[in-house]
Amino acid sequence: MFDIVTTPISIDHVMKQVMHHNAGAVVTFVGTVREMTGEKQTLYLQYEAYESMARSMLSRIGKEIREKWPDTRVAIVHRIGRLEIGDVAVAIAVSSPHRQDAYEANRYAIEHIKKLVPIWKKEHWTDGKLWVGNQTETVSFKERGGVARL
Amino acid sequence: MIRILLFAQLKDQVGENKLLLDYQPLSVADLKKQMQDRYKFQTKDVMVAINEEYAADYDMIHDGDVVAMIPPVSGG
Questions:
Q1: Touching check for B44 and chain A: CB below 8 Å?
Q2: Number of domains composing chain A
Q3: Which residue of A has its CA nearest to B51?
Q4: pLDDT value at position A129?
Q5: Contact A50, B68 (CB under 8 A)
Q6: Residue A72 falls within a domain, yes or no?
Q7: Do the Cβ atoms of B75 and A121 come closer than 8 Å?
Q8: How confident is the model at residue B44, as a pLDDT?
Q9: Which of A38, A57, B26, B37 is positioned for an S-S bond with A117, CB 3.0–4.6 A?
Q10: Tell me, how does this one assemble (chain A) (predicted)?
Q11: In a domain, A134, yes or no
């Protein structure tokens, strides 16, 4: 299961996609909307995606994981649209016979999503709004009416 | 005809999410330069995908291709 959705993500549903009799471990990563980043207060986030490419990139990451860690199963769901503080933006579940592979593979998935999958978040702060420029949130793109102070 | 898709801040800057360009032989680097000259946005950090596959600056764009201008991504 590799999907981009506009409705709330059920973590349970994502986990169930990878659970099976020979799995001894399931590692789940859940990315949520954070309110405070240093001194800045987020009101909400707006995510957009190049949906068709994002889906195929997610499934490619899944394929790479199954090649690197052959006995794993992977499911990734990313939500787009308007997300409020605390909402789940992304859920990644990886199962494997033993926990080490599931931990490593899950980490691989989120790091690659943040570098390669065409999804963008626009931060709406108390003092402005802007598109976040990269995964480490050190590059920003100033927008009219927005205040860039990263 | 080449279809160009714009996202995030590029979409906001240009005011469109899609542009049509009459076909001409050009590379990804040529297209980036044209976009930079015409719309004044920086393409240094912009990745380009041709038909949903990331492309290098030297890759050629063909008639009918869908070319996405992908600013640094921030999913997760």
A1: no
A2: 1
A3: A53
A4: 86
A5: yes
A6: yes
A7: yes
A8: 86
A9: A57
A10: Heterotetramer of 2 MoaD subunits and 2 MoaE subunits. Also stable as homodimer. The enzyme changes between these two forms during catalysis.
A11: no
Mean pLDDT, residues A136-142? 46
| Residue in chain B nearest A47 by alpha carbon | B75
Identity of the residue numbered A128: G
Written in H, E and C, the secondary structure of A16-31 is HCCCCCCCCEEEEEEE
Beta strand pairing call for B66-70 and B2-6: parallel
Q: Shortest Cα distance from B28 to chain A (angstroms)?
A: 18
Q: Please give the single-letter amino acid code of residue B13.
A: Q
User: Is A124 within the bounds of a domain?
Assistant: no
Could you confirm whether domain B2-70 is CATH 3.10.20.30? yes
Name the helix (H) or strand (E) containing A105: helix A99-116
Q: How many residues are recorded in chain B?
A: 76
Residues with Cβ within 8 Å of residue A60, at least 6 apart in sequence: none
State the ipTM, two decimals: 0.95
A9: CB partners within 8 A, 6+ apart: A77, A79, A88, A90, A91
